[in-house]
Amino acid sequence: MRIEEATPVIPLRRGRPRSAAAQEKILAATAELLSEGGFQAVTMEAVAARAGVAKTTLYRWWPNRAAVALDCVSARMTPITDAARAGSYRKRFQRQLKATIRLLNGRQGQSILALIGAKQTDPPLGRAYSEQIARPRRVQTRRMAHQAIEAGELAPGTDPDLFLDAIYGPLYYRKVVSGEPVTNDFIDRIVDAAFRAFAPSAAKRSGIRRSRRGLP
Question: Are 120 and 113 in contact (CB under 8 A)?
Fold first, then answer.
């Protein structure tokens, strides 16, 4: 059943507080089904059976299978944070991309990739994925790009979205399309190349340094 034929993806219902243990069983079951059979394998009946809960429990907390799948993937995505906050922004982006590929290569990666694939042919699912997962993450990475510009590591006037596409695009192309390996060395080279391409000119770098010292 295509998602267009199902109940539209809507925010979670309010009601009885969730049991944390039951919720995790449901999300884990959903992740297994996504990994094994893709989005089409995720039905409310299958999730309930795999999790060992009543189907009414699922409908109490989620309106449809798409909402369960989105919650599952959102809970398993690596947070875009850099607790160390150490080193250059080039290094921070390298750490973030490496954390992303570790997740995609790990046990939970197949469920995430399955949902990314499913949204290509299910517009309502694609819109919900964008609103709940992709856009909030983009806001955070865009903020990092703006900070890199302010720090003088990227040229003034750099389009943050173009820069982000330049570093994240090759990662997802290899992982989703070509199947080529995404190694730490590959990530380092991609990020290094992007920072070189978007680097401020020598004159502008000098002006930034002088400005920070309070010099005219």
Answer: no
